[in-house]
Structures are given as structure tokens and as C-alpha cells.
What we know:
The structure holds two protein chains of two kinds.
Chain A (H helix, E strand, L loop, with lengths): L7 H4 L8 E4 L9 H10 L4 E4 L10 H6 L3 E6 L6 H9 L3 E4 L2 H13 L3 E4 L13 E4 L2 E7 L3 E12 L4 E2 L8 H7 E12 L18 E4 L14
Parallel strand pairs in A: 1-2, 1-8, 2-3, 3-4, 8-10, 10-11
Antiparallel strand pairs in A: 5-7, 6-7, 8-9
Chain B lengths: L3 H9 L7 E4 L3 H4 L11 E4 L3 E4 L22 E7 L2 H9 L5 E5 L2 E3 L4 E2 L2 E2 L3 E2 L5 H7 L3 E5 L10 E2 L14 E4 L2 E6 L2 E7 L5 H7 L4 E2 L13
Parallel strand pairs in B: 1-2, 1-5, 5-10, 6-11, 10-12, 14-15
Antiparallel strand pairs in B: 2-3, 3-4, 6-7, 8-9, 12-13, 13-14
Amino acid sequence: MNKVVQNAAEAIVGITDGMTLMLGGFGLCGIPENSINALVKSGVKNLTCISNNAGVDDFGIGLMLQGQQVKKMISSYVGENAEFERQLLSGELEVELLPQGTLAERCRAAGAGIPAFFTPAGYGTEVAEGKEVREFKGKHYIMEQAFDSDFAIVKAWKGDTDGNLIFKATSRNFNPLMAMAGKITIAEVEELVEPGELDPNFIHTPGIFVNRIFKGVNYEKRIEQTTTR
Amino acid sequence: MLNKEQIAQRIAKELEDGFYVNLGIGIPTLVANYIPTGVSVTLQSENGLLGMGPFPTLENVDADLINAGKQTITTLPGSSFFDSATSFGMIRSGRVDLTVLGAMEVNDEGDIANWKIPGKMVKGMGGAMDLVASAKNIIVAMQHTNRAGDSKLLKELSLPVTGLGCVKKVVSNLGVFEITERGFELKERAPGVSVEEIQQATEGRLVVEGEIPEIVGIWE
């Protein structure tokens, strides 16, 4: 089976209005830049996006927000994006904020065939509203359910044509979890190699989870806060 | 009164050799600059790094290597990278010995609010709710009052809660407080700050017993 597609435009074929997408990355680190740009060009609308953050005003998911393509964001922290905050406070954009570990685990659960789990995070807070609470060994936990997403879009450092992926440094973050969780998973990589060129000992995401893979181009890798000694 | 750097210096005295520590954004990040001599701690950054090093030199800046505050950083010998689920696995299973967080409000039962001001500011909780739900030891670094002079150490929170009964200690610009069943127990005063000033600035239950020493070992 050939998983390799030529570019982002080809990779996102089948993403249509109203779908739910997972997008990897933490801040702007490890985001699927090529695919986001292709989604912006495609004009697809009413998306629900699951991503830890919402980019910044003029980069990452922020570009999709500018184009009013996002109906709902599911994130843990959105502090870096003024347009996001504006759309949220004005009611144009629906937002579900979740504890970061819960967001990660709901991705992991989806990729692990586990429909729900109990976590202490958010007990007694707004996050717990409407969710089942149970007590284990004297401590309270809330039930969280696995995410359901049509596509997961991740960015890896290296990949092979079988879909095996290796991530670099802290750009790993949510990417391997989301790669496991999409009904269809798209991986964009900086280096695309032939099977056998990546050491099996160092694969983070086994190829079984990846449906489409392509070599990304022109990575900007914007840094939010360049901090030096 | 303590400035932000001095609050961080005081909190750094709580670090013990061998601790795994998660430092939040803002004043907590500054704690890393004051780790006592002879104490070795490992900093956890919840975006997927254990063993966080100092900021890089300009030529070593790497866009793929950031901390949870989105600042560029470096690794150290012995560092490791991992995904976000593994990261919060460490946190929820209690492996992180100390968490230092900022707060908008804390009450005298150890509840904390730091993620949302309804109708005004919605940034999100990030990893804070996971951290406060599971961390063994949580110290809050905060200003004692807001700009209007109102206490942020309260009887009841006015803002949406981040976690219940989790804060063990508060280091503010006015002093050091342990939170027990009796409320905020004043342990140390900032240099030049009287007990009366602290009483006036504290809305929640404040316990003052005996002579309250001034904080020592803080430098300019």
C-alpha cells in the first residue's frame, strides 16, 4: 500500500466542512505547517480542531481562525492569540478548554482503544460539569472520554515511506498521541526516507498508525519567545 | 517587601537535593536561577522534557526545543524527551516532588484560581489543573494584593477554581504562609513588613503565633 502523497494539498483530500481534526504541536513547536497552509487554501469550514494551542494571530492555527474556518477549538491554553480571544469573547467561536494532561490522555485513549478513563484533574472545577465523578481510594476523579476525530495531522522530523516516524526534541509533544488517534492520520515530515533507513530501535510512531505521509517544504519553524543566555 | 526575584529566591530555599520540580510560567520560572549550592534538582517541563537546561546562546537556539512557556531552552547531560501523555503520567502519578505555580487567588483552605477571569480573560488552564490535582507539594508564588490593593489571599475564591485544597505554601511579596486547617499560618515576614500590614492585606483566616521572623538569605 502506498502511503506517500506528493504534498499537503494531496494529503488533506477528504477533509470536508464540519469535520473534527487533531493537529499536533505545543505552541508553534512541532505544528504541521504545510498541512495548515493547505487547509487555509482549501477554504474548508466549520471545523472542530483539537490542538493544545491555537497558534498565534498570523501563524499556525491562527491562520485558520483568521479565515473563520474553525467552529470549535478544543485546547488547554490559548493565551498567545488575540484573534482567538476576540472570537471567543464575542461568541463567534466555541471553545472547550481542558487540562493539558486530560487533552493528551483523551488522544492516547482514542489511539489505545480505551473509551474512557478517570482523572483527578479538574475535579471540583468547571471542567467537571456534567461529567461522572467517582471515588477511588478516598480521592475524587472525573470521567473523561476518548476523542473522536476524522483526521489527525502530525509533524515529524523523520519518516519512512511505511509511515514510521521519529520526532525531534520537544516537537514530539502531542504528535505521537494524535498519530494514534485519527481515523485517518496524515504525517508531514522534514525528511522522508526509504524503509530500512530508520533504526527500528528509535521509531516513536510505528507506521501502522499513519495513512498518508509526505515530505514538507519551506518549514518556517517560528519561535514564540527566543530567549538566550 | 519582596520583589519578584526575591520571591523566587525564597522559594528556591525549599528545594531539596534530588527533587524533580515543575516550575510554572512567570515568577516560578525565576526559581531556576537560585538553586542553592550543593542541591541538585531536575526540572520537568510539561511539554516533554526532563532535565531542562539554561537558555541557549544565540547560535544554539533550536525551534524544536522549548519549555512550557514557549521559551527556547537547552538540554543537560541526562535529559530525556517524551510525549505529552507520558509527561502528565509523571505528574498525575506523583513523581514530581515540587510544583511552583503562580495564582490570581488562593483561599485559606488551599484552593487556587489561576486560569480564567469570566468575561475578561480566558487563556486556559494549560497543565495547571493536572499539576494541582496530583502534585505532592505545591508552592504558590504571588503578589499579596491586586493593583487596587485588595487581598488575593481570601476566605472564598471569587474566580473559577483550578484545584481544591492543594496549595501547601504561599510565598508572597509580604511573607511566607503555610496553609493548614487553621488557615494561612504566617511563618516569615518580608524584611520591613510588619505583622499588622500583613493582617490588613489578608482577607482569609490568618494565624499569627509568637514572634514572626524576617525572611533571611534574600539578596538584592
